[in-house]
Amino acid sequence: MEPHPRNARMLTVNQLTSAIQSGDIDSVILAFTDMQGRLQGKVIHGHFFLDTVLGHGTEGCNYLLAVDTEMNTVDGYAMSSWETGYGDMVFDLDLDTIRRLPYREGTVMIQSDLSFTTGELVNVAPRSILRAQSAKAAELGLKAFSGTELEFVIYNESFESAGLKHYRDLVPANQYNVDYSILGSLRVEPLLRDIRNTMYQAGMVVESAKGECNLGQHEIAFRYDDVLVTADNHSVYKLSAKEMASQRGQSVTFMAKPNQREGSSCHIHMSLRGEDGGLVFWDEEKNERTPLYDHFIAGVLATMREFTLFYAPNINSYKRFSEGSFAPTAVAWGLDNRTCSVRLVGKGASARLENRLPGADANPYLALAAMLAGGLYGVANKLELPARMDGNAYTSDAEHVPATMQEARDLFAGSAVALEVFGEDVVKHYTHYADVEMSQFNAVVTDWELRRGFERH
After folding, report:
1. Burial annotation 29-57 (CB, 10 A radius, 16+ → b, else e)
2. What is the DSSP letter of 330?
3. Using one digit for the tens of pLDDT, what is the confidence trace for 307-335?
4. 20 to 30 Å CA-CA from 56: which of 80, 340, 355, 399?
5. CATH class of residue range 132-448
6. How many CB atoms sit inside 10 A of residue 413's CB?
7. pLDDT in tens, 412-436
8. 13-122 has which CATH code?
9. pLDDT value at position 1?
10. Which residues are CB-contacts of 85 (< 8 A; sequence separation ≥ 6)?
């Protein structure tokens, strides 16, 4: 049976085959999301894809899950090293994900899972980690849905120009705070409109765009979906926004904290349903939350500090957590309370929790996996929901989220819960990822040090 596309705007194998044979499609991007949240892979000629890749697959070097952000090979990863010869991984094509990229003529993308040439799943791959948590939910008769609200900052400079200027003194697309400003959105609407319409054509359900607080900062929202679909869409959207900005001589950044103003978030909304689509978070007769919902919230909170590395995966991520910034510092929950790390919104079918901890730099697969794993841990162990936070969580005595990557790394590495829900391979792999990032950062002489020390020390 032919795989079923996610909606009518995505392609079936038969439709892709016809489009390639007619010359409408000539390039097929095969991609997976790496540790850093980037889409990596190959661009395959259309006819070679039909003749060879579709039936037999393709491979890529396994170092792609064992490099730093600069794509340098680093020692210490069990799955890939000079000692093991840097072998291949197999791209296991998910043929439900065939989508056009309309901003690239004649081009489609297919997203992939990864396995070793021995046939064994690459269990440390981000998509594998999220799939594993989704499967655990299914074992309980549950299905997880999520939406990611991703903010970014637009600059009226190309990526090349920004690099040549060392990413300093860039011209933002808006010169003042445009939070919810229609004028502010319209000033950059040509780009935002193109992204919205193109992503719709690429199979996503686009909701809206709005301005945000930082200069040139905006957000485009998409409708919630199955957690894996949401992560796939998130990755494609992030790549596409950069590509489409670049085609206009502009640039966008998804850094969590690109400057001293407000950072860019990735608020994650999540809910569970029964396999039949029935409500499990809300008791319609009593018009209140179910015990399962409370256990899920409790699990997300109980694991938040230990799982922060999956929500905030970079050195820069932790610069975003500051009092009064709308980025949370307290491990707390509240009803429609944006000072808390977990905010409950909606009733009935719309009942869901919003995790405000992740920044725009989060890897969507890892962040969603952490939130789902934490919630399911709470359900499995029937964790009791702590007291609701009323008022300002920033000034409360609630426990704080990790303030540095080192703190987050140590909590993750020593977490018995992480070991239980993710497995030893995943914990070791991403602990080493954090070690590499911190080691490289600690070796750099920063602008801050030069300004403070060049003359005065």
Report:
1. bbbbbbbbbbbbbeebebeebbeebbeee
2. B
3. 999 999 999 999 999 887 888 989 999 99
4. 80
5. alpha beta
6. 18
7. 999 999 999 999 999 999 999 999 9
8. 3.10.20.70
9. 53
10. none
